Amino acid sequence: MKNKFSWYSPLTQNEVDEAWDAGILTVDANVLLDLYRYHEGTRDSLISSIEKLKCAKWLSAQTAEEFFRNRKKSILSSRKTFKEAQDEIDKLKAKATEVTQALKSNRLVPSSITEKLSKDSDELLLEAAKAIEEEIKKHPDFLDDDPILEKLYGIFANSIGDDFSEADKKTHTKTAEERKNKKIPPGYMDKDKDGDRSYGDYFFWRQVLDHAKAQAKPVIIVTSEKKEDWWEIISGQTIGPRYELLKEAYEVTGKKALIYQTDRFLSYALERLGEKKNEKAVAEISEISELRYAGNAVRKTTQTCSISTSTNNVGELSVILGRPVRNFTGSGHFSPQMAKPPRLEVSLIKGPSGIPMYKLGGGTGTVFDFNLHIKATDNTELLPEGLYVFEYQAMVE
């Protein structure tokens, strides 16, 4: 039994050492794209760990293609988060002013209390706004000068796999479609993506296994994926890689595969290198990955407008959530564009049964789009799948 199911047996120390010291290390596209989303310390820790490991570093053609196709979008997205943070500070300022004005009109409340509250809140919010401004100034302009890209060029120099031939691509596309319909991992959770994008995970997987087989070496796969078509998830807890993936990797390559999420990989890499644990970096990687996982859970978003002008946009944003998550974001658009970035008010008017206590917010970083965010207040609870309908009003003051 042990010999027949050896792919399922825990790795021996010799197998672990062989993979980390003489195997092949490869990553998916989001592992690279996330480098633009991390703070400098986290980014440097991950890149440095990859550089120092003894094993060979290699990228699939699928990973390289997705990285270069989405690189600029990731850079611009990271900039947008600063604007969203500034919007949140502005909303707090407006709310603080509203509260202090209400207290001032209450004659039973001593004026000294409202004066102190107003003064302290103004100072704290001003300090926060200045801190965000400083972070914006320090944040590199990766579109103009990109040291991350130069590092990646060095790490993966002459280590990029070839894409499928036209004939092989047709064959693998057919296989990917069949696997998707039969829910064979990986990639079937991407069935709602457009065109070849729904086959991306399988193409990546196939190219990695083909390369590992040709090199006759074990492979370490680092992925940012958190979905069930990569991981065995029981009662909301991730147990490990899907057994189908472990089995297929062994059958194709003759070696056991090691599959890690990015945060777990960094922890193990630092340990292998004999370096100090970087809990802050690991936590940030986990948080970024969780945010993407929540975004991927959104199956469909529709928007209707009752008022649509350059100064006032009122409507509903409907989001279909495909699986339970702790938080998710829905995005809408302004047509015509607003005269300037508006103030946004949002409420949840309809949702599936069993919604736990939640926090709701929104942000407008531009004059042409906006985001609505909902998060379970208790981190141990999940927002149930189903239809969520948000009512919003965007106003230019």
Provide a short characterization of the protein structure:
The chain is of the alpha/beta class and 397 residues long.
Provide a descriptive summary of the structure in words.
There is one protein chain. The chain has three domains: 6-74 and 144-292, 5'-nuclease (Rossmann fold, 3-Layer(aba) Sandwich), CATH 3.40.50; 83-138; 298-395, Immunoglobulin-like. It has a four-stranded parallel beta sheet, with helices on both faces. The chain is globular. Helix 4 (61-104) packs antiparallel against helix 5 (111-138) and helix 10 (262-272) runs antiparallel to helix 11 (279-296). With 397 residues, it is α/β, with parallel strands linked by helices. The protein contains eleven helices and 13 strands. The protein has helices at 13-22, 29-33, 40-52, 61-104, 111-138, 147-155, 166-182, 200-215, 243-253, 262-272, 279-296, and strands at 24-27, 56-57, 219-223, 231-234, 237-241, 258-261, 298-308, 312-321, 327-333, 343-350, 358-363, 369-376, 386-395. Residues 168-180 have a biased composition (Basic and acidic residues). Pfam families: PIN_8. This is DUF4935 domain-containing protein. Keywords: Coiled coil.
